[in-house]
Amino acid sequence: MDKINSPGEFQVSIQSPRLTVAVFKADWCSDCKFIDPFVPELEQNYKGRLTLVEVDVDSVGDVSQEQNILGIPSFVAYSDGRELVRFVSKLRKSREEIENFLDRALEVYQSIHK
C-alpha cells in the first residue's frame, strides 16, 4: 500500500479515474495496528479492481480536517476527485467489515462507471 505523506500526494491519488480507497491512519493508533496484519492480503485480493493508499494523518496537514476525518482508521473511496462512500465507526473494524466496505465501494464505483 502506497503511503501518502503530503497534501499534494493525496490530491494526486484521489484524482485518478480508478477506484482509490484512502485508509486514514497514524503510527500511534492501536486500532490501526490491529488491521495491519491482514491489509496486505486484502490489497492482493482486490488487486486490479481498486487501489489502497495509506494516509498518515500526522503528515498530511489539513487534509484530514478537510476530508472530515474524525476517527481512525477511516476508509474513504474516491474516483475522479469525488468521494463515493466511506466507512467510519468508533468501534474496531474487523476484516469482514473492511471487506464488506470494499465490496460496497466497488459496487458504487461500477454503478457510476458503466
Task: Provide an overview of this structure.
By secondary structure, the protein is of the alpha/beta class. It has one domain (2-112): Glutaredoxin, CATH 3.40.30. 38% of the residues lie in helices and 24% in strands. The chain has 5 helices and 5 strands. It has helices at 7-14, 30-35, 39-45, 63-66, 95-112; strands spanning 2-4, 20-25, 51-56, 74-79, 82-87. It has a 5-stranded mixed β-sheet with strand order 1-3-2-4-5, sandwiched between helices. It is globular, with a radius of gyration of 13 Å.
Shape label: globular
Q: What strand line-up does the widest sheet have?
A: 1-3-2-4-5
**Main sheet characteristics:** 5 strands, mixed
CATH topology: Glutaredoxin
- The number of distinct helices, counting runs of at least 4 residues, comes to 5
Low-confidence region ranges: none
Number of domains: 1
Architecture, CATH level 2?
3-Layer(aba) Sandwich
The span between the termini is 27 Å
Could you estimate the helical fraction of the residues in percent? 25-40%
The count of DSSP E runs of length 2 or more, i.e. the number of strands, is 5
As a percent range, the share of strand residues is 15-25%
